[in-house]
Specification:
The chain has eleven helices and 13 strands. With 289 residues, the chain is an alpha/beta fold. It folds into two domains: 4-29 and 64-153, 3-Layer(aba) Sandwich (Rossmann fold), CATH 3.40.50; 157-285, Hypothetical Protein Tm841, Chain: A,domain 3 (2-Layer Sandwich). The strands form three sheets. The chain has a six-stranded mixed beta sheet with strand order 10-9-8-13-11-12, with helices on both faces. A four-stranded parallel beta sheet has the order 2-1-6-7, with helices on both faces. It is globular and about 55 Å long. The two termini are 35 Å apart.
């Protein structure tokens, strides 16, 4: 039985230290700002990226590069590894399709190679939590097939709730109308969104005011966790350069679930280009996606 490696894409929003410690292979997604394409060797820090957005600059995004995918997979195959790839939602990007195609081609060209692609139907650290679970199962001695089967069977248990600070970014991405964005901004409406069973980001509810929106996603998480409330899975918070709000949300959670481990990280630029500065996401295991 071969050892297997775990790969993902940069939209998984995993902490850099975790990626290095667990040796996760990361395939970049890209973004363009002021005529410069970022994602490979050239990158902005999240702080630099969001500060540029605050000046009015509007980035565009691109999915993963097929040649980078092929090289990443081929390198691991040449080292004798099987590959479990954890992918960003196919409903939000062409990156998953690119990965599936690349995996199929590498396996056809390398008899005996094994690459399993998991379409998480998820995003940000909702996707990253698939990676964390896969790493834990591998460390427990589970095979690539046992790990992949568990993830597929429990795919709908990885939940995300999201709120944004500026509705205009959702309008730019086609999520809401210009009128809704204008009126909502005038009366301080904050939308609550979630990733549905098909991996699409859709509206769940609205809340008036920032603090109330954070309390709303916390309470909705508590209502949705079910059997996972007493488990040892981490809860993840992601933010668009809004660490004070992320810490406030963490405090709300720990008041109710004092023994939970909470991981906080930035929303990556290729997602943040659509959610904007100030976005807050809450990722957790639950019985109601």
């Amino acid at each position: 039985m071969k050892d297997f490696v775990i790969t993902a894409d940069s939209n998984s929003d995993l902490l850099e230290d975790y990626i290095k410690e667990k040796q996760i292979g990361i395939i970049p997604h890209y973004y363009d700002l002021e005529g410069i394409t970022y994602g490979d060797e050239v990158n902005l820090t999240p702080k630099e990226f969001y500060d540029k957005m605050r000046t009015g600059l509007m980035p565009t995004t691109m999915a993963s590069n097929p040649e980078v995918i092929r090289k990443t997979f081929q390198d691991y195959v040449d080292q004798g590894f099987d590959i479990l790839h954890i992918s960003f939602s196919s409903a939000l990007s062409g990156g998953c399709s690119n990965v599936v195609t690349g995996a199929r081609e590498i396996c056809e060209e390398n008899p005996g190679a094994k690459i399993i692609v998991i379409d998480t139907l998820n995003a940000s650290m909702g996707e990253g939590m698939f990676v964390m679970k896969a790493v834990r199962m591998r460390e427990e001695g589970k095979t690539i097939d046992e790990t992949a089967n568990w993830l597929e069977e429990h795919k709908q248990d990885f939940c995300v709730r999201f709120t944004v600070d500026d509705l205009n970014h959702l309008h730019r991405g086609g999520r809401i109308s210009k009128t809704t964005a204008f009126i909502g901004s005038m009366i301080n409406i904050k939308p609550i969104l979630y990733l549905n069973s098909e991996g699409q980001l859709v509206a769940l509810s609205t809340s008036r005011g920032r603090k109330k929106s954070l309390a709303t996603i916390c309470n909705d998480m508590l209502d949705s966790m079910g059997k996972y409330k007493d488990g040892d899975d981490v809860i993840c918070i992601v933010h668009g350069d809004s660490i004070d709000d992320a810490n406030y949300l963490a405090e709300l959670i720990l008041e109710k679930l004092p023994n939970k481990e909470i991981v906080i990280n930035f929303v990556s630029p290729s997602i943040g280009a659509h959610s904007g500065p100030g976005a807050i996401g809450l990722c957790f295991m639950g019985e109601k996606r």
